[in-house]
Structures are given as structure tokens and as C-alpha cells.
Design a protein that fits this description.
Elements: H1 5-23, E1 31-38, E2 42-47, E3 53-57, E4 68-73, E5 76-81, E6 104-110, E7 113-118, E8 128-133, E9 136-142, E10 147-150, E11 156-160, E12 165-171, H2 198-227
Antiparallel strand pairs: 1-12, 2-3, 3-4, 4-5, 6-7, 7-8, 8-9, 10-11, 11-12
Helix pairs in contact: 1-2
Length: 228
């Protein structure tokens, strides 16, 4: 059976669409976790829309200030104040329901995101702290969540009472081209398997196009022979 060059070209376009379409999945959420210091005599006051966390404490602003407020930006202390910093706080609210399969201790929801501490993993593991959206939940680290704050873009701050440490997980920007999952949690987690890179896809597409061109040239030569 003879196949025309036009039909073959159409078939290759369909194949390329399937190849590219099947690999362009949404990238999983990734986070960078920062330890903000001990929670002894300290607690979280709030988190703002940019991911800045304000921690209150009884020391740090002088003898005349009974309470000191420290602002952390990307894990670094950037300012101390004896009064509450004038930020747009975005702490989240209580959740309507808890994720299925978890024994939840504290939880907070905001704009489709959830952050919580679980007394056990599904199946009976140790204590853990999770965040994410819908059924796409990431285990940030083991421990507890005794205070929980979550802004509308998915940045999550919590007080781990078991280890006496305050943490914040800053949600990383999603890669624009590659569907890559990279859970950056204090470098304790390795990236999940990634989708084929655009370079590999380009090679596949180029090979298909060269194949079509060769078939069409052969078909043209055969047509010329028949005409002679």
C-alpha cells in the first residue's frame, strides 16, 4: 500500500503532538526550609504575603522592651523592633476538613493550600510536617507543628515543639519549561525523576522530520520513473 507524503506528514505531526503533550506535566511544588532559631521563649507572630516571618521573643530589643519582634526574610533576621512590624500579615485560617489518612494535630488553610502537623503518616509512620494543595502533599520534615501559619502563595511557617525550633518553608518558583520535582528541604531530599528534557524532545522531533523528508524524496523519484 502506498502512502502519500501529505498523509505521512500528518501522521508525524500527530506523533510529535503525543510525544510533547505526554511529557509536559505540571511541576510538583518545591520548598526551601529555613530554621529560624529556638522556640524557647519565642513564638511566631505571623507571616506576610511575601513570605517574611515575624517571631516574637522576650529579649533582643533592650531592657525597656518586654517583647522584641524579629523579621526574617528567606531565613535571615533582617530587623528587630519593640513594636509589631507593619506588614501585610497573611496567616491563613482554620480548615474545613483534614486530609484523608492523616492524624492531624494542628492545621491551617489559605487559598487552596494547607499546612499541618500529623501525629502519624498514612500507614503508621512517625510524626511529620506536611504542606501542599489538594492531594499533592509534601513531607517537609519529621517533628511536630505546634504553631502553624500559611500565606496565600503556599509559604508555611511552624513551631516544632518536639525539637524546639521555629521553621519556615518558602515555596520555590516553578520551572517554566521542565516538569521537574525538586523538594529542597535542607538538602535532605533528592529530586524526583524528571520528565524528558526539551533537548531530547527536539532530537526526537528533528529525527521524525528528516524521516518524512527522506520518504517524500523517495516517493518523488519513483513518480518520475513511472512518468518516463
Amino acid at each position: 500500500m502506498k502512502i502519500s507524503g501529505q498523509r505521512l506528514s500528518g501522521a508525524v505531526v500527530v506523533v510529535m503532538a503525543i510525544v510533547f503533550g505526554s511529557t509536559q506535566r505540571a511541576a510538583a511544588d518545591s520548598y526551601t526550609v529555613f530554621a529560624l532559631g529556638s522556640d524557647n521563649g519565642h513564638g511566631i507572630y505571623g507571616i506576610d504575603t511575601a513570605g517574611n516571618v515575624v517571631v516574637w521573643g522576650g529579649t533582643g530589643c533592650g531592657i525597656s522592651a518586654p517583647t522584641c519582634y524579629t523579621t526574617y526574610t528567606n531565613g535571615m533576621a533582617t530587623a528587630d523592633s519593640s513594636t509589631v512590624p507593619d506588614l501585610v500579615y497573611d496567616d491563613g485560617t482554620s480548615c474545613g476538613s483534614s486530609p484523608a489518612g492523616f492524624i492531624v494535630s494542628k492545621e491551617v488553610c489559605n487559598n487552596g493550600w494547607i499546612g499541618f502537623g500529623s501525629l502519624a503518616y498514612p500507614g503508621g509512620g512517625p510524626l511529620g510536617v506536611y504542606t501542599g494543595s489538594g492531594s499533592d502533599l509534601d513531607l517537609l520534615r519529621s517533628g511536630t507543628a505546634d504553631q502553624v501559619f500559611l500565606n496565600s502563595v503556599g509559604d508555611f511557617a511552624w513551631d516544632d515543639g518536639r525539637d524546639d525550633v521555629i521553621y519556615v518553608a518558602i515555596r520555590n518558583a516553578v520551572p517554566a519549561l521542565e516538569g521537574q520535582s525538586a523538594l529542597l528541604v535542607e538538602q535532605d531530599f533528592e529530586p524526583a525523576t524528571t520528565a524528558p528534557e526539551p533537548t531530547s524532545l527536539l532530537l526526537v522531533g528533528s529525527g521524525l522530520l528528516f524521516f518524512v523528508a527522506a520518504i517524500r524524496r523517495k516517493a518523488s523519484r519513483q513518480a518520475s520513473t513511472y512518468l518516463d
